[in-house]
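== Sequence entry ==
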Amino acid sequence: MIKQNHSGFLMKTNHIYGTPSEQEVIRYTEKLAQIFRLDKQNAEVYSALSGENRALKKQLEDYYSQYNALEKRVKRLERDVESLESELEDLDECVDRETVVDLIHEIVPSLIGKKGKGFSYLYKPSKESDSVERIAIRKSEDIPYKQ
């Protein structure tokens, strides 16, 4: 005959006395011990995994916070770039590049001439770009040759 005991397990009972045999009790006791050991192992594993999970969750929150801060910074920089591009477009409309290059050609030699009188400068504008090639020529009479 099979009956359910107080812990919910089905147990085979001795027909004559109505109680389980000694071997059955030992076998069920061993099963219970095994189940409790597994429960203990499961609890230990669960505890360890929960700790890892909390640590990873905290790390994820930190990364998310850093991501948000960087995202705000990028948006701010993008707005700054747009503003600077707009200002540059406005300046390009107001200023003629050729005029600016001509002014630089006039101003730079006078500034350089104040620093060193022993040099003369020749400027060659480049046709490919707005850059200017500067060639310094030292006057030979200003620097005596020493041996």
